[in-house]
Amino acid sequence: MSLASGHPYLAIPGPSVVPDAVQRAMHRAAPNIYEGELIEMTASLLPDLCRVACTRQQVAIYIANGHGAWEAALANTVAPGDTVLVLASGLFGHGWAEMAGRMGAVVEVMDFGKQSPIDALRVEAALRGDIDRRIKAVLVTHVDTSSGICNDVKALRAALDAAGHPALLLADCIASFGCDRFEMDAWGVDVAVTASQKGLMTPPGLGFVFFNERAAEVRAGLERVSPYWDWTRRADPEVYYQYFCGTAPTHHLYGLRAALDMIHAEGVEAVWARHDTLARAIWAAADVWGEAGALRLNVADPAHRSRAVTSLSLPAPRATDLRRWVEGNTGVTLGIGLGMADAADPAWHGYFRIGHMGHVNAHMVLGVLGSIEAGLAALDVPHQAGGVSAAAQVIAADGAA
Q: For residues 382 and 294, is the Cβ–Cβ distance under 8 A?
């Protein structure tokens, strides 16, 4: 007998749960794309996106996923033959590096593995060694969705400054945006990229690139930028269609407007605090389960864990067994262990992830954890009982504060 009948729950690290308010905003007839409400509403999105990024700089919107935002950022800052330094702490750091190489950049990768954050002192040493200033941009993934590592972007800006290096600092905030604390201006980020389908609670299809004056100056010095990816007109259009280099993604924009309204009604600081509490509840449960078994959090130090996604492991193939049992019997879908091992390697079945980003609250997280604990028991996976109770204690303590 399955107990999965009813409303399914997607606990993967994106696409995240789409709120009812966002769905209602999108469920409408097609609007006029030449004048009226849509034009005024679109203009309101840019400052509100910048509020979430904690920046007074500019933002360009693309009809794209996160990979499109990656390409847009590179197209406006890196010319073929330029050297970029990519700091990798998981699959997505390497993915951005691969894209830069395919676009003609000379790519240098510093790989910090899948369980450790980026070491800013090593980065500083590498930048000091770049005597000829070949490196034009440093690329960092704030939160790598595969490993769950949250990197100290502020420390990387300090490393650039200490080395006296002029390279731009580009940050991938796709997983972290609206979940983990991110402050573009205060942290000295020149370009930040994100997308709609995670902390912004809107279906996949919109990419965003925030850029400051330093990055704009680099863009102005490039000989050629693809018309579609060029951020110049998108960020400061003379006519409406230039926002999107063509027809607007009408219904996504209405959904995004509703999502931003929700974020700002709660307050960005409160959104970060909610994600922090819910993440710590998940970690508390995992710590208890692991006391009498082999379940482990991928990142040992809580200071280096994302508040948006948690990566865990079990001896293969138990992680896959658990995912399948939980989905089939409780209606909860957990994330695969993306990038932690090659898909053809049996070890691939030893990892899973919990997404806790965007439209998520205490009962959602407790439901996911209860489903996991039930699965561990049903499958006779060695573990210490009481993980859900430990999570509840975290939530109770923060709720009483």
A: yes
